[in-house]
UniProtKB/TrEMBL annotation:
MF GO annotations: glucan endo-1,3-beta-D-glucosidase activity
Name recorded for this polypeptide: glucan endo-1,3-beta-D-glucosidase
Membrane topology category: Lipid-anchor; GPI-anchor
GO cellular component terms given for this protein: plasma membrane; plasmodesma; side of membrane
Protein localization: Cell membrane
SMART domains: X8
Source superkingdom: Eukaryota
Protein EC: 3.2.1.39
GO terms (BP aspect): carbohydrate metabolic process
Chief localization: membrane
Location of the X8 domain: 369-454
KW Ligase (keyword) present: no
Catalytic activity: Hydrolysis of (1->3)-beta-D-glucosidic linkages in (1->3)-beta-D-glucans
Amino acid sequence: MASRFKLVSALSLLLLLLDFCRGSKVGVDYGMDADNLPSPDQVAQLVRNHNIQYLRIYNYRPEVLKAFSNTGIELMVGVPNADLSQFQSQPYVDSWLRTSILPYYPATKITHITVGVEVTNYPDNTANLVVPAMRNVVSALKSANLQGKIKVSTPLSFGVLSKSFPPSEGAFNSGYENVLRLLLDFLEENQSPFMVNLYPIYAIGDSSLDAVLFKSPSTIFVDQNTGLSYKNIFDAQLDAVFYAIANLNFRTTRNAFDAQPDTVHFTLANTNSRINDIITYNYGASLDSVDDYANIDNAQTYNTNLISHVMGGSGTPARPGANLDVYIFSLFNENLKQGPETERNFGLFDPEMRSVYNLNFPGKGTGKSWCVASSQASNSALQNALDWACGQGKADCSAIQPGQRCFQPDTLVSHASFAFNNYYQKNGATDDACSFGGTGIKVSTDPSYGNCIYNCKYKF
C-alpha cells in the first residue's frame, strides 16, 4: 500500500502544505501571548470578515474551539510542550480527546493536532517525548473513529538542519537523526505532514532584501549539484528541507531521492509512492524591529508576494508544480511573547482589530473580484490615482474621510484600495476599470474588514 506524508514550514509564520490533488491554501497563526487581545468570538468574526479560512492555534482552549464552531474555518490545534510528559500516558490522552476535542468536533472543523513545537530546541528529554505522544494521540483518534480525519504532526525548527546551502546538500543535525527517523516513520505510516518553521527574513545578512521579499528580477544563485536556479530565499530554505529528508532516508537505505531538473520526488522502497504534501510555517518581516528592513512596507511586500508565489502554483525549483498550504505568523501583535521585541510585532492586526497593513487572502474562492491598490506602487502614483478616483472618477470616497468607517488604517494604500474598488464596481468591474495607471490590481478575495465593506457587483 502506497504511503506518503506532508511537509509543513513558518515566515511571519507560514504553514505550507504540498498536495498535487488540490489547490493551495493560505492561513494564519492565531497566537495568544498577550493580555490585550479581543475575545475569541470577536476574533472569529474578524477572521471571517477577512476571508481567512485556515487558522492555527497553539493550544486547545475551550472558548476558542467553541468560538469557531459552525464557521467552516479549518483549525490546526496545538498541544504545548509542557503537556508532553502527560501525553506519554494513553489513558490520559484518551481522556484529553474526550474532554478537550470531541465536544467541539465536527462543529469546529479541526483538521490537525500538532503535538509539541520545535522540540529539538528544548533541553532535557523533550524531543524524545514527541513521537510516543503523537502515537498516543493517533490511537485515541482511532478509538473515536477519527483516524485519518484529523492529522497528527509536530512543527520543527529550521535550526534542526546543520546545513542548508546549497539546498541539495541540506542535512539534519546528526544529534537528532534517531528522533527524526522515528518521526519520519510515524508520518509515513499515518500520511501526516512534516512541519518545519522557516525564517527567510533572518537570511538577509547573507542575501539581498529583494531575495527575501520575492523581488529579485533574476537568479540569485544556481545549485551546482542540481543545476536548479533560485530567485528567492523561501524556495531555497524549503528545498533544503526536502533534500535533508531525502538525504537522511537515503543513508538508511529505506528511501531514495530521485532528483532531476524537471521533477523531484521521494520514492519509497517497493512502493514508488510520492511524499506529496508539505506544511510550512514562515516568519517574515515584523513591525517595529530594530533592524532597518523590518517595517510595515516590507512586511506587506513580503506577505503579499508570498501569497502570490504560493497561490501561483509554481512550487519550488526542486518540487515544481507542487501546491502549498501556508500559515502566516501572526494574526495579532503579542505583547507578552518572550524573546526580542521583533517577536512581539509580527501581527497582521493590532489588538483593536485594525489592519496593520492590507493583505488579501485567497480563501476558498467566490467567483467575485475586487480592485485594490498595489503595494508596489509609489506614493506619488497612488496619490494621483486616489485623487482622480475621488474627483473626476466620481468614486464615493465618503467612507475614507476622518471618523468614517474605512478611515482606519489611515494609510495611502488602504484609502486608495477603497476608492479604486468603488470606482471599479461602478464601472462594470472590467480590467480597464482597475488600471489606475498601473497602480490597481484585481483580487478574488474580499478585502472588507470590520465595518468597512468593499462593494462587489455594485448596485446603481
